[in-house]
Amino acid sequence: MSMPGGRQPAGALVSRRALFSQLTDAERVTVLSAAAGSGKTFLLRSWIAEAGLAESTAWVSVHGEDRDPQRFFLSLADALRATAAGSALVRPLTATPDLDGWAIVEGLLHDLHALRDRLWLVIDDVHELRSDRALRQLELLVMRAPAELRFVLASRRDPQLGLHRLRLDGELTEIRAADLRFTLEESRALLDAAGVRLSEEALALLHERTEGWAAGLRLAALSLAGHPDPDLFAAGFSGSERTVAEYLLAEVLGRQPKQVRRLLVRTSVLERVNGELADLLTAGSGGRRILRELEQANAFVLALDSQRSWFHYHTLFADLLQLELLDTTSQDELARLHGAAAAWFGEHGFPVEAVRHAQAARDWSLAGRLLSDHWFGLALDGQAATADDLLCGFPPDVIAADPELTTLLAARELNQGALADAERHLQLAAEGSESVPAGRRAHLQIVLGMQRLTLARLRGDLPVAIEEARHLLTPAGTPGRAEELRAMALLSLGTTEWRTGRLEEAEQHLEQARALAVRVGRPYLEFASLVSWARAVTARSFALVTEFSTQAIELAGRHGWTDDPLTGDAYLMLGAALVWRGRLAEAEPWIQRAERASRAEAEPAAVLGLRYVRAHFELASGRPEDALAAFQAAERQAARLVGPHLLATQVRSALLQTLVRTGAAERAEQRIAELDDKERETGEMRAALATLRLAQGDPRAAAVALEPILDGSAPVTRRASMSEAFVLEATAQDALGDSDAAGRALERALDIAESDGAILPFLLHPVPGLLERHPRHRTVHASLISEILNLLGPGRDGRASRSPARSPAPPEERSAPREPLSESETRVLRYLPTDLSAREIADELFLSWYTVKTHMRHLYAKLGTHTRHETVQQARDLGLLAPSPHRRPS
């Protein structure tokens, strides 16, 4: 939440110049640590107003009810982007189911590294940030942010952020309760501004009794305003801060008009209130005007937004109001207040508050309906932990008696990997579905179906998953949020169909999922549908893969999802499509991005795809040994999968062909012999066998191996693989002396490649002689032939166009560095040949940016270089780095 408009605090402003100067002149981090009522928030708002820092200050309040750290960091990013300096640097960021706080912090550090203007980030109520993970993420932001970003942390106790290093370096300013106490002169200024005149003796006594406590003085000012004998009143109270606060708050409350007092007491059931809610709970009118007047009078009512539409009460005031409410309101009436609030929040799109108030009203039926309606939406918004917390707010017997809540319990168990428990609860929910009101049964069936689908997918039972997904798409006239659920079901169905090779159906359902996601305003579902759609069309068109993955990447960029694992899939598919289209220089950066986006704990299927694409890139770049290692790594990942995967056979086929290219034909022959009959007869394996027979000088056997592919009896999994089969056929027929048959096969291969430029088969199985002899008057692919020949280069062998890497100097000509490299410098050196920036290298090595830059300067000095490029070349010449593996098209 941003600072309330940067607006000057309501009521009188007391200029506390010493504290204001301390805040303005502070170094990296300022901590205000003191109990409630010490005046932390009011001090900060007053400082921002007097110093004119509204456009340079981002304000975030931590809310204790938020269980998902993602929401805090999203609010923080929004607040930074709302400042003058941050608006041009901080990218928009939208919630996702899996958006990680670490990724948000890394993104902020990346965006803010160019910050040149001073910017303050105020985080209020840091003590409410209870997640250890979120605290560590905030600590990372604090420690690695640019010096121009100054942090001001307000908390009721010292934040657990490991700030001792800043204290030692003199970069931590600490303001505590004693510092926050008003001096005698400041106390006089506060009372004068409130129109209260006290004698010197009375003022001194009031200051002594309150000990300069901010809340006590502000309450005294409110109580003394208009009092017939302020001196007598000032002398008449004493006690602890708490008793003084309760006494003075009671005075303040007691002096309010009946309408105002009723509004304050009845709305104290709310964490935040606006005029419409105030009118609803008081059955009155004018709530917004009253709240604004109370805020203006500094009556412990604070605005939460710049429009002054939402307000909340100071903790001390809220506690007193709630005590008053409990003393004057029956339990039935209290439940009615919570019920009315639940209905209002539910109707206005605030499901979390709606469920909490329904639970407070003990209206379990309403609370259950609200949570069931919004469960998936909360997950999509990155609030899965909050949804889980809401579910924990129901008594166990209520959950057991409510099929909708039992289904949500199963959803939680699925997320935790407790599949047997989830299955049992899904069965119980299904058995009790008849007890659900008729108007809710269709919704329950959708939620049940979504969980059964998830269970089947987690167990690898894809046929059951498909069956469940198709049941979800049966028109049922479901009310409420059914379209959102339908979009999720279409996405799940399409993804499952793709995994089982039902590609046409997958494309259809993924296209529908995307259209529906756009209609219901769910960009993450649209994004996920595009990514899955790009996967599905891989079998028939790399041009479409390029189109859909590019659209997904652009959508991710607009919403700040560039580091999301799913965006990594889009990077990979775009890289793969570019490899198949022969655009290797364009492909490599996308493959590298995909590799960086992949998490260490990524599932085997994701790693399988990464290794598969990387291997083809290495193969097309003329590095068969590196390709072989990558294919072998991909095969190991395929072995870890529970069920079959579309890529598994393709990986083995490519691996066998790569063995042939590296001179290991005997190993390839042995591995083919070890295959079971079913896999040996697949189109991919027959292509591998043909490659082996051609390498062995037996083109007739190669042609025999290819026959079932060409006549369709041994189909291949992707259209471009047919192009490869025809290239191999052309090679075999040419070797057999049948030029007409070779020409026909070559033309068929070109036909397939022309549609989307998938020319990788011509690079892996180069046939430059055939292409040059192919009659131009008998082909419509003259320009494509020229493109392929250009890529093959002068040597026409598929490798000559890749310029050789600069060779390192012979050992006898190498000289040692001017000074030995330290271990840390050597670690940094290994990253210099990559396209990672210094900040990204720092991330990889868990170092600060400054440390990496220092190591780089030392490397330049020790190697006698001036630029990063020179340093890499010199390190290679000295044998400190391996020779460059990159050979680009000329």
Write structural notes for this entry.
The chain has 890 residues and is mainly alpha-helical. Among the domains are: 17-180, Rossmann fold; 184-254; 258-358; 675-802, Serine Threonine Protein Phosphatase 5, Tetratricopeptide repeat; 811-877, Winged helix-like DNA-binding domain superfamily/Winged helix DNA-binding domain (Arc Repressor Mutant, subunit A), CATH 1.10.10.10. The chain contains 47 helices and 8 strands. The strands form 2 sheets. A 5-stranded parallel beta sheet has the order 2-3-4-1-5, sandwiched between helices. A hairpin with a 6-residue loop joins strand 7 (301-303) and strand 8 (310-313). Mean pLDDT is 84; it is low at 1-12, 798-814 and 885-890.
Q: What is the CATH architecture descriptor of the domain at 17-180? A: 3-Layer(aba) Sandwich
Q: Give the CA-CA distance, first to last residue.
A: 54 Å
CATH class of the domain at 17-180: Alpha Beta
Taking strands numbered 1, 2, ... along the chain, how are they ordered across the largest sheet?
2-3-4-1-5
Q: Name the overall outline.
A: elongated
Proportion in helices: 55-70%
Look at the structure and name the CATH superfamily of the domain at 17-180. Answer: P-loop containing nucleotide triphosphate hydrolases
The helix/strand class is: mainly alpha
Summary of the model, kept short:
With 890 residues, the chain is mainly alpha-helical. 63% of the residues lie in helices and 4% in strands. Among the domains are: 17-180, P-loop containing nucleotide triphosphate hydrolases (Rossmann fold); 184-254; 258-358; 675-802, Serine Threonine Protein Phosphatase 5, Tetratricopeptide repeat (Alpha Horseshoe), CATH 1.25.40; 811-877, Arc Repressor Mutant, subunit A.
